[in-house]
Amino acid sequence: MEDKLLQTIISKNDTKIVLVVADGLGGLPDPETSLTELETACTPNLDRLAQTGSSGLSVPIGYGVTPGSGPSHLALFGYDPIQNLIGRGILEASGIDFDLAPEDLAARGNFATLKDGLIVDRRAGRISTEENQRLCAILSKEIKEIDGVKIIIQTVKEHRFVVIFRGKEMAEGLSENDPEKEGLAPLQIESLRSESRFAAEISNKFVALVTEVLKTEKANYPLLRGFAKKPNLPSFDQKYFLRAAAIASYPMYRGLARLVGMDVLLTGEKIADELKTLKDNFSNFNFFYLHIKKTDSYGEDGNFAAKVKVIEEVDLAVGEIEKMRPDVIAVTADHSTPALLSGHSWHPNPFLLASKHAMPDNLSGFSERECRKGSFGVFPATEIMPLLLAHSLRLKKFGA
Amino acid sequence: MEDKLLQTIISKNDTKIVLVVADGLGGLPDPETSLTELETACTPNLDRLAQTGSSGLSVPIGYGVTPGSGPSHLALFGYDPIQNLIGRGILEASGIDFDLAPEDLAARGNFATLKDGLIVDRRAGRISTEENQRLCAILSKEIKEIDGVKIIIQTVKEHRFVVIFRGKEMAEGLSENDPEKEGLAPLQIESLRSESRFAAEISNKFVALVTEVLKTEKANYPLLRGFAKKPNLPSFDQKYFLRAAAIASYPMYRGLARLVGMDVLLTGEKIADELKTLKDNFSNFNFFYLHIKKTDSYGEDGNFAAKVKVIEEVDLAVGEIEKMRPDVIAVTADHSTPALLSGHSWHPNPFLLASKHAMPDNLSGFSERECRKGSFGVFPATEIMPLLLAHSLRLKKFGA
């Protein structure tokens, strides 16, 4: 839905929406059984809701497009995922729960090894996270500021770190210094737009300082990529009048929720922890984004059976959520991750919406192949938020 | 899919795609049997692929829009059919396998009869093709060039010819000289844009010269319509990184394929000839557009039974194509041509995609009414190319 239209019909009320995102839920059939992960799993709660609720297949970005988690979540949250591309540096910073300020320019870093002017190892032997933490501690002590720009360096994992340049004049539009192949010299960081000249200067000075500080280390060179600022998105409160909370155990999803102004709740790693967080906070918000990661993780691992088991846990969780009596429950995914492909895919997502105002589709169960027969048909994921708002009676009549 | 998005995710590989276009495939039910042409035909191969592959109904231009072959093919090939309208002159020139240069301005011509300053017969008694060839030979000898613009005159059929004005200053934007009714005087060709003044002058000089040369003939006047230049479309190679070949027995479809930079292969009139061409060239390309005309021809004739028979031939051909083991086979149409309407129609096209990465839709067969239950739903024909690219693993992940 266009923002302009939404603004003319959006209204407030106190009903509650729970959006359950089982990451990478959709799959492809096991050649032996001809059943997908979702079709194989025993899901009595989801199957019952597919009878009494409305379903469809949602397309995150476009036909045939395999989305990353950033754009697919933006689409789910109702933001144009192509217009609002989230830079790599921002995703990496979000992924370590770093709270980005509007003036921050973030970049992903690799600790690499430079020898005789050439990058001989882009990952410095894939150093340990502990070694990375040691290097970041040294750098944080030695490089606090460059020409008025505050420098924040944070470990991610193994050879990966994030650097945040905090300063009003730090603009987007920088090239990267990573030659992308070993045996080549690192590149200069260049400004791709006139307003990013200062940022290029600061970034190159940062690279020189790091090289100086780490000159006796194996990991003696910072390769910087994906320079980006936080996209300027209206918050859930501004866009939908929703007090929204995110319950997600993985940092990247907490970061994505933070970008759209959700309150990110402390929770544990298990689905049971997330459910408890939902229950404890149920009265404080009217929108909950509950993210379940393991469906995707096992899909990525190509572990069909383990993905099936997580789906069965999701089913039990949905049963528990029903007991809290939200007005609308939706269950879907950000993208498909078929165990057969061991990765994200372009296949549309099963989507299910339960509400007393939903058309009962009488589907025989919740699956990729049943959902395509549902009331919503095959539809863009960006329309999910309008559907949730409509079924919670938040959208007024358009026109007379 | 927007070109900008496509450019960020497109990649190359060596997998092979065969797109079978059974022109005018979709139909409407025979009132006696309540079955469409496709439902009546015995199509064991297509029915099997509708079980194991993914289907949908594709909309070429928009809901309710009956497309001509030009725009419906552009949509199939993934080009915006409304933004890239192909002028009639270009279609007519393409239809006789004429290889257009970028500077060419082409127009459709009718040989007409002028008497006492009025057009008394817009088709000069529908002269024979041989008579047309005789006149074109005379004109080609007498009119080779006007003010530096090269003139090329080619017979099409009966009273129809094509004239190509080859010269850098020949711009689009001309009115036509056809009064469209008999008993009226022909019109002056006028420039509709400032840059087409020169083209209008040359065109009017051409009309005067033809009238002079043919003054003793019955067919003594050229009515010119649809002045157009070749649209400037990126080629399949540029847009999709595909080495694309066209196998089509009718000139117009060869011309359309040429406009998007496909290699147009020599082939015969029968489906068997086209299959042989496919087989002989299978190793040389990674995309094949295989066009079957007779489904449409019999639809246009209102010949339900003959259309059914051709569909059965298409089914056999698809079986043969499967044996060549392409990675993706798609079977669809450019537009529907129900025998009941004896013409093109607005009804969406049955679309079927077979690939090991496709969701098996388990449809009970390949037909208009089964396809609407498929994974792709009812979707724009311009999304067919992205789907073919995705299923041949040519589209990288979008965003992180």
Word description of this protein:
The structure is a homodimer of 400-residue chains. The first copy, chain A, has 400 residues and is α/β, with parallel strands linked by helices. Chain A folds into two domains: 3-85 and 233-391, Alkaline Phosphatase, subunit A (3-Layer(aba) Sandwich); 90-229, 2-Layer Sandwich (Alpha-Beta Plaits), CATH 3.30.70. Chain A contains 14 helices and 14 strands. In chain A, the strands form two sheets. The first copy, chain A, has an eight-stranded mixed β-sheet with strand order 10-9-11-1-12-13-2-14, with helices on both faces. In chain A, strands 3, 4, 5, 6, 7 and 8 form a six-stranded antiparallel β-sheet that branches. The two termini of chain A are 19 Å apart. The mean pLDDT of chain A is 96. Chain A binds chain B through residues 28-29, 34, 57, 61-72, 81-82, 85-86, 88, 91, 341, 344-348, 368-369, 372-373, 377-379, and chain B through 1-2, 5, 9, 56, 357, 359-362, 373-379, 383, 386-391, 395-400.
CATH topology of the largest domain in chain A: Alkaline Phosphatase, subunit A
Segments of chain A where pLDDT lies below 50 for 5+ residues?
A: none
Share in β-strands of chain A: 15-25%
Q: Largest interface, and how many residues on either side?
A: A-B, 35 and 30 residues
> Which structural class is indicated by helix and strand composition of chain A?
alpha/beta
Mean pLDDT of chain A: 96
Number of strands of chain A: 14
**How are the strands of the largest sheet of chain A arranged?**
10-9-11-1-12-13-2-14
> What's the oligomerization state?
homodimer
General form of chain A:
globular
* Structural domain count of chain A: 2
**Residue share in helix of chain A:** 25-40%
CATH homologous superfamily of the largest domain in chain A? Alkaline Phosphatase, subunit A
- In the CATH scheme, the class of the largest domain in chain A would be Alpha Beta
Largest beta sheet of chain A, briefly?
8 strands, mixed
Question: Architecture of the largest domain in chain A in CATH?
Answer: 3-Layer(aba) Sandwich
